[in-house]
């Protein structure tokens, strides 16, 4: 099941953390569309590489298209 969520808060990192934790809990793939504060360039150059380095070893695959994150649980850790 895919769940689409949108964030326009001033703390998109908090929303991304919440989305990751929800995915870890129930295994559902989630899409999180960030509508403010993070540009595509910022996500590609800073956010995605850093968050991947944290979450890939914990069984979460993160990818992004534009400003929409795809969060997938690939294994239990």
Question: In a nutshell, what does this entry contain?
Answer:
The protein has about 80 residues and is α+β, with helices and mostly antiparallel strands. Helices cover about 40% and strands about 30% of the residues. The chain has helices at about 10-25, 40-55; strands at about 1-5, 30-35, 60-65, 70-75.
What does this structure look like?
This protein has 77 residues and is an alpha+beta fold. It contains two helices and four strands, in the order βαβαββ. It has a four-stranded mixed beta sheet with strand order 1-2-4-3, covered by helices on one side. The longest helix is centred in the middle third of the chain and has 16 residues, at 40-55. The radius of gyration is 11 Å and the shape is globular. The mean pLDDT is 89.
Write the layout of secondary structure elements.
Elements: E1 2-7, H1 12-26, E2 29-34, H2 40-55, E3 60-65, E4 68-73
Parallel strand pairs: 1-2
Antiparallel strand pairs: 2-4, 3-4
